[in-house]
Amino acid sequence: MSDLTVERLPPLGMVTIRGELSKIGDAIVGETGCAVPAPRMSERSGERQLLWMSPDELMLVCEYGEAGATADALTARFGDAFATVVNTSDARQVFALSGQHAEDALASLMPVDFARMKAEEVRRTRMAQIPAAIWREGEGWRLICFRSVATYAEDLLRGAKTVGG
């Protein structure tokens, strides 16, 4: 039996931003209210969270209904800058994860040292055979994966074992 509580969340807004962050950073801050995060970190402003995904990619997590307008506003702010902004909300599934031994259960599925992850840290990794991103959210975790593999991901999470479990 798993010591991991798994909740499939309703859709969240997700806007993928790609470009030279040093050139578009001010526009990102102006539109989102979030500072551009350092590598493998996140920044918050109210209900919005900006996640570092790679040296040229960020993901804004926001209310589902805001994502389209926010993507359009970012595109307008970037002007002629070489950048791509896409509303990826419908392409991803978000899970809320918690439990007394959640970190052990998650570590059985991912090559991540969860005990060393900082509160604002984001990790892009793999969970068994699928790409995923994970970060702390309060006392628990948030995990995102592609919606096309969400059932597989949920089955993996629900079957995760802890040491001695």
From TrEMBL:
Signal peptide span: none
Instruction: Please name the Pfam families in this protein's record.
Output: SoxG
Give the matching InterPro entries: SoxG, TrmE/GcvT-like
Q: Which domain of life is it from?
A: Bacteria
Q: What is this protein called?
A: Sarcosine oxidase, gamma subunit family
Q: Which organism is it from?
A: Jannaschia seosinensis
